[in-house]
Write a structure and sequence with these properties.
mainly alpha
């Protein structure tokens, strides 16, 4: 009967399996820097496919690798910031993969386009850069309307 008159006890939080250290100021700064590096890498990869070319994708790849290494160091520090760094480590791997693929695509396109650019520079004929703009008739147009 004594158990019926007592108010229900709120559930208690379970004790953590291992105690985590509070993050130091340097760990917090390192996390912010690594987040910014991964953001740059995530943006640089797709943008360099269309606008920036090889150098932007290479810069994104370097930022991704540096961010990955910073996250790896934060995970090994065993502070309370380690779980956050573990989640960001996955996004850094994705950024590195994307920047690597785009860097390879930029190099391949440069190798393919190099002979065309070299020929255009040697001959002075830049019509090969835009298909369909070659010299048609002596009047310059190749329209059916004449």
């Amino acid at each position: 009967m004594d158990g019926q008159n007592n108010a229900p006890q709120p559930p208690q939080a379970p004790e953590p399996a291992h105690s985590q250290l509070p993050p130091s100021d340097q760990d917090v700064r390192s996390l912010k820097v690594a987040q910014n590096l991964i953001m740059v890498a995530s943006l640089a990869g797709p943008i360099s496919l269309f606008f920036g070319g090889f150098w932007l994708s290479a810069a994104g790849l370097v930022c991704g690798i540096i961010g990955f290494r910073k996250f790896k160091a934060l995970i090994q520090s065993q502070s309370s910031i380690s779980s956050v760094a573990t989640r960001f480590k996955k996004s850094s791997i994705v950024s590195i993969v994307i920047c690597s693929i785009v860097t390879v695509l930029n190099v391949v396109s440069a190798v393919i386009l190099y002979p065309i650019v070299l020929q255009a520079l040697e001959t002075g004929d830049y019509a090969n850069f835009m298909p369909g703009t070659g010299t048609g008739t002596p009047s310059g147009g190749n329209s059916t309307w004449g």
